[in-house]
Amino acid sequence: MSAKELKKNNIIENALKLFSKKGFYNTTIPDIAKAMKMSVGNMYNYFASKEELAKYAIKYSTNILANQLKEINHKQISSKEKIFLFTKQYLENVKNSPEVIEYFLRVYLSNREVFAQGCEGFLCVSEFVTEVMILLDEGAQSGEFREQEFFTAFSMIMGCLGGFAFLSGEKVLDKDLIEYSNSISENIYRALKSDKA
Amino acid sequence: MSAKELKKNNIIENALKLFSKKGFYNTTIPDIAKAMKMSVGNMYNYFASKEELAKYAIKYSTNILANQLKEINHKQISSKEKIFLFTKQYLENVKNSPEVIEYFLRVYLSNREVFAQGCEGFLCVSEFVTEVMILLDEGAQSGEFREQEFFTAFSMIMGCLGGFAFLSGEKVLDKDLIEYSNSISENIYRALKSDKA
Amino acid sequence: MSAKELKKNNIIENALKLFSKKGFYNTTIPDIAKAMKMSVGNMYNYFASKEELAKYAIKYSTNILANQLKEINHKQISSKEKIFLFTKQYLENVKNSPEVIEYFLRVYLSNREVFAQGCEGFLCVSEFVTEVMILLDEGAQSGEFREQEFFTAFSMIMGCLGGFAFLSGEKVLDKDLIEYSNSISENIYRALKSDKA
Amino acid sequence: MSAKELKKNNIIENALKLFSKKGFYNTTIPDIAKAMKMSVGNMYNYFASKEELAKYAIKYSTNILANQLKEINHKQISSKEKIFLFTKQYLENVKNSPEVIEYFLRVYLSNREVFAQGCEGFLCVSEFVTEVMILLDEGAQSGEFREQEFFTAFSMIMGCLGGFAFLSGEKVLDKDLIEYSNSISENIYRALKSDKA
DNA sequence: TATGAATGAGAATTCATTCAT
DNA sequence: TATGAATGAATTCTCATTCAT
Fold it and tell me: Which part of the chain engages DNA, per the record (chains A, B, C, D) (predicted)?
């Protein structure tokens, strides 16, 4: 990876943190530049606009999630175990790299106008969506999961996890995040599993 | 209700629509004034600031949801039926009054800074949260639902519904929203129900 | 004329002076606001953009020239006298209201990109062009002027006058502008007149 | 000519094209560097500033015109024929090397501030002005032209030609440029010629 | 109550120029 | 000579809020 590529990634990481903490519109380019100890003008040598940076950031953060899930999908374990593993992983992200999850929830989902051009459909998050699809398809094929439409299952899994991430951000939970892992997995698994499983 | 109160409500409804469609930061006071056919200055006779208006709007829209759920909670039906009814109702909202749901998802959840002072905890949405609590408590007491912590159940229900509302907004669903009602209810119910139920 | 209209005109006049003196790109909105003793933001309550202001300015200044020439055209005098009168008038403008002429020469003619949308063809200067056309047509019909294509005659008249206005701006002339009036008129008239005249 | 001199000329030619097409302020040093397939920094090894480059460009383009006119002046033909020849030559330039003419009209004449220091008076275009002077003086001495002040005659010739070049740039002419050559020459010649001629 | 002109701080973005390599 | 990352001041435009009427 070239020095320029490395710096681009570095900017993305800083932007990710700031965007997720303060929101897209409350994060200014000078904010990001300051975090980078870089001049404002130089930022534009790396990204043509704040929007472009936001689009790179969603791809970057989604890739992290996609890779984690892909690794889980590759394991020789039951779909139930995959659900439990992914849930745990997700909550650990919320705990340790909250910006990755929060960016998705608070920036990507809420600022459609920013991602309208260039991220149509699921274009910028497709790698992750694909892995969820694989998880669900394999579960259904093995008979572990009920047959159901993708979107209802998808919104169950991600809504459940995303909703909990929000609660965590609201600081209303009294226990450590990870302790909720089994309960949440259980909810998701029960919703998905076939009656014979 | 006084004439002033009526006008306030009218402003809130217009603001709700604009905020949910364009986001908090892309909706200007002149935008809202224009929708109201009212002068900018006069707006400030009703609300002290844009933020205050946003806070009134979250209370207003949450009340609609709370009242709907309260009515369902009062019915003499099983908890399962309540889940199915609420889900249907929610999806009908998404279809017919999208601003109520979208405001919650795209403005309230994503712009923490706006609601930081005055809506701490669940202050501005407490009526609705309370009704969900009642739904869950009664289900647990009757033995229909498993015992589980409130927050895991809450985030499952609302995440599931909210997630689907997002998908609907993304225009990726090919069927009419209402047709998904049973599948979604089924997922939620299965996640909640006790093994004996 | 409403107070707002009056103020708009006042802004146009100030902009005209600044644009013509310093050029379009070296005149900033704060410059114009300062000349108006008005805040920058308020400027935008009158004109949506710097470009829009520049377009209003060309119409405003062209109208002045058009009205002067129209008055001359209405007189019951020979075409030769009209040429002499118009030339004198034009040079008096250069001397007393240089911004009107300079704006045309230094802003309108040179910054095509600014006037590209909205002033296509001669849209923003058509009233003046029309009067020149009338002057030439009537001279040709009365037999005073040779028959010739409009554009060759037009560019001769306006090039001759505009060129001299430039020289005046360059401060290379040693006599008072008005003293050149007859020589210039003579040149223009000789170029136009028919051999029998 | 040294390799460095050659490259300088090459830069000037590219700058001439870009400046005349997009204007001085809309042409950036990176634009010119890109056209040269050269780095931005290296540009500054050849020209100390954008303004200096613009000054070299006016000298370069004026020299082209000056040399053309000088050659015509050296011919053993009547002044009338010289006028006709120069006009034709000028229009051919407009057609085939528009940048040379447009640079003069759209950059040099309109951005006084750029050429203020270093091109005072006619310093940067003096070679060309001198040749026009020679053309006029010889015509007057031979009795072909009327006696008249240099500046009135100069603005007639160059205004007439420049004005037509502008019209050509505006794309309002329906015939090929060269076809207007005789009419324009005729206008200029009639304006200048003595009554006995 | 109602109007809308006025304010001014702050946003994103641009670009001539420099300089370490 | 050549590169292109880095600087930072400057520019246009926006908008919540105020206030005289």
Answer: 28-47
Chain F bases near protein Cβ (<7 Å): 1-20
CA distance B161 to chain A (A): 7
Residue with tokens 């009340």: B63
Give the DSSP per-residue string, D58-122. Answer: HHHHHHHHHHHHHHHHHSSS-HHHHHHHHHHHHHHHHHH-HHHHHIIIIIITT-HHHHTTT--TT
| Gyration radius of chain B's alpha carbons | 18
Percent of chain D with pLDDT over 70: 99
| pLDDT at site D12 | 98
Question: How many whole angstroms from its chain centre is CA B3?
Answer: 27
- Residue C48 burial (C-beta neighbours within 10 Å; 0-12, 13-18, 19+): exposed
Examine the pLDDT at A33 and tell me if it is beyond 80: yes
Could you report the per-residue pLDDT of D9-66, keeping only the tens digit for each?
Answer: 999 999 999 999 999 999 999 999 999 999 999 999 999 999 999 999 999 999 999 9
What 3-state class would DSSP assign to A46?
coil
> Does residue A55 contact residue A118 with C-beta atoms inside 8 Å?
yes
Domains of chain A: 50-192 (1.10.357.10)
Q: Say if CB D11 and CB D39 are below 8 A apart.
A: no
Q: How far is CA B144 from CA A196, B11, B131, B190, in A?
A: 21, 43, 17, 11
Residue B18 forms contact with A (CB below 8 Å):
no
Between CA C191 and CA D163 the distance in angstroms is 15
pLDDT digits (tens, 9 = 90+) for D173-186: 999 999 999 999 99
Residue D43 (CA) to nucleotide F2 (C1'), in angstroms, measures: 10
D85, pLDDT greater than 90: yes
Nearest to D178 by CA among D84, D62, D39: D84
pLDDT at A134 over 90: yes
Contacts of B153 (CB under 8 A, 6+ apart): A187, B136, B145, B191, B192
Task: Identify the segments of chain C with pLDDT beneath 50.
Answer: none
Which pLDDT score, from 0 to 100, does residue C101 have? 97
**In the complex, which subunits touch A with 3 or more CB pairs below 8 angstroms?**
B
- Residue nearest the C1' of E19 (CA based): D41
Q: Which chain E positions come under 7 Å from a protein C-beta?
A: 1-20
DSSP per residue over chain C, as a string? --HHHHHHHHHHHHHHHHHHHH-TTT--HHHHHHHHT--HHHHTTT-SSHHHHHHHHHHHHHHHHHHHHHHHHHSSS-HHHHHHHHHHHHHHHHHH-HHHHHIIIIIITT-HHHHTTT--TTGGGHHHHHHHHHHHHHHHHTTSB----HHHHHHHHHHHHHHHHHHHHTT---S-GGGGHHHHHHHHHHHHB-S--
The interaxial angle of helices A29-36 and A3-22, nearest 10 deg, is: 130
Residue D11 · residue D53 · CB < 8 Å: yes
Residue A108 DSSP one-character state: I
Neighbours of B81 (CB within 10 A): 14
- Determine the pLDDT at residue C121: 84
Phi, psi of A176 (to 5 degrees): -65, 140
Tell me the CA end-to-end span of chain A in Å, nearest whole number.
47
Residue D62 distance to chain C (closest CA, Å): 17
Confidence of residue D107 (pLDDT cuts 50, 70, 90): very high
Q: How far is the CA of A52 from the C1' of E20 (A)?
A: 29
Joined together, the tokens standing for residue D65 give: 């015109």
Q: What is the pLDDT of residue B152?
A: 97
Mean pLDDT value of segment D161-190: 95
What would the pLDDT profile of A155-174 be if each residue is shown by its tens digit? 999 999 999 999 999 889 99
Exposure of B172 in the CB half-sphere (CA atoms within 13 A) = 17
Sequence-ordered list of residues with C-beta below 8 angstroms from that of B160, at least 6 positions apart, any chain: A155, A156, A159, A160, A163, B184, B187, B188
